[in-house]
Amino acid sequence: MRIAMLGLGSVGKGIARAILEQDLGLSLTAVADSKSGRIEPSGIDIASMLEQKERTGMCGTPGVGAADILASDAYDILIEVSPTNAETGEPALGYIREALSRGMSVVTSNKGPVALDYQSLHLLAKEHGAYLRYEATVCGAIPIMHTIESGLAGNTITKLYGVFNGTCNYILTRMAEEGLTYQQALLEARELGYAEADPTYDVKGIDAAIKLVILANAVWGMEKTLDDVEITGIDGVTTAAIALAEEQDLTIRLIGEIIPAEDVLRVSPRIIPKSHPLVVEETLNAVAIDTEMAGEITLIGKGAGSLETASAVISDLLFIRDCHGRRS
Ligand code: HSE
User: Fold this and answer.
1) 275-305 pLDDT, tens per residue?
2) How far, in Å, is the centroid of ligand 1 from the Cα of 324?
3) With a 6 A CB cut-off, is 166 part of the ligand 1 pocket?
4) Which of 168, 178, 164 has its CA nearest to residue 246?
5) Torsion angles phi and psi, residue 242, rounded to 5
6) pLDDT one-digit tens code per residue, 172-228
7) What pLDDT is recorded for position 309?
8) Residues 300, 278: contact at Cβ < 8 Å?
9) Which one, of 143, 168, 169, lies nearest residue 289 by Cα?
10) Catalytic status, residue 211
11) Does the predicted TM-score (pTM) go above 0.90?
12) pLDDT of residue 323
């Protein structure tokens, strides 16, 4: 199966390495970063492409870009992993639309386009007999979409709640463990590269809220936007409040929840018992899925990271290939 990839940052590099190092039956035939691109229908030498990217900052030839790749017939599936824009979704949204309109399936880790335009992208994919998969947009390596769609098939999902932002979880953990102030812990999270380019997306709860919008629209077919989410971030949480909670075997976590029966989408810091399954440490994410037949299922795992996010993208690619995909 021939793969084109738009974006070669941390996630894109993880995907390229996974394709290089594992025998997945996937061939990378086109790739573009923000400054350059290459199209090689017989298959890119990934090791030398990554080496060139490391050395020059460019994966290919200047002047070759996303438009050339999208218009080419060198690929069967598009991986869209360019930087996210939560306000407009662009330019990724346009790339995804273009590929789907050409009948090409798309796998993306890009939260902006999926949160902003899920229903119309979904319809576009259907209209053109293509697939749009986006496991990597919510909770990194945790297979939340696959679990709901396959593992819990036949179940009514009554509620979803959990820790959807690793940066906030890291900050709250460090404040509790080391008595750091919010500012000190945020600085640490930034230095370690966990936070978004603009960390206000993390600490004000917007990143978690975007993930709730994606889940609400994808799992329940709702038509929610960011404005429908009640959001309180962790920027008002003090070390003293956490210390007080800890004295009573409680702690504070930023919890996102969707309760469809009450039309609730909410992100807020919550005081919960330290023994609760959602009290995960550092950058981990955790999601509890309430169902009618299966009861409650809790998934815990890495919510971000190069290879971890690549894992979610690869699982979507293989889903398309194995179940329904075009073959080459
Ligand atoms: N900044 C996000 C987080 C990255 O901390 O969870 C993954 O979406």
Assistant:
1) 999 999 999 999 999 999 999 999 999 998 8
2) 30
3) yes
4) 178
5) -65, -40
6) 999 999 999 999 999 999 888 888 778 999 999 999 999 999 999 999 999 999 999
7) 94
8) no
9) 143
10) yes
11) yes
12) 76
- Please report the domains of the chain, with CATH numbers, ordered by start residue: 2-140+307-324 (3.40.50.720), 146-302 (3.30.360.10)
Burial of 102 (0-12, 13-18, 19+ CB in 10 A): middle
Which tokens belong to 105?
A: 């399936």
Token pair, residue 307, equals 């290879």
| Ligand 1: nearest atom to the Cα of 196 | 1
Atom of ligand 1 nearest to the CA of 195: 1
The strand pairing partners of 38, in sequence order, are: 31
β-pair type (230-231, 264-273) = parallel
Q: Is the CB of 304 under 6 A from ligand 1?
A: yes
Share of the chain above pLDDT 90, in %: 93
Strand duo 284-291 + 157-163: pairing: antiparallel
Q: Is 301 in the pocket of ligand 1 (CB under 6 A)?
A: no
- Tell how far the Cα of 186 is from the centroid of ligand 1, in angstroms: 13
Q: Are 133 and 252 in contact (CB under 8 A)?
A: no
Q: Is 319 in the pocket of ligand 1 (CB under 6 A)?
A: no
CA of 103 to the centre of ligand 1 (A): 31
Q: Which of 13, 53, 111, 211 is catalytic?
A: 211
Ligand 1 binding pocket mutation candidate from 165, 191, 213, 280 (most atoms within 8 A of CB): 165
What are the pLDDT digits (tens) for 304-326? 889 999 999 999 999 999 876 44
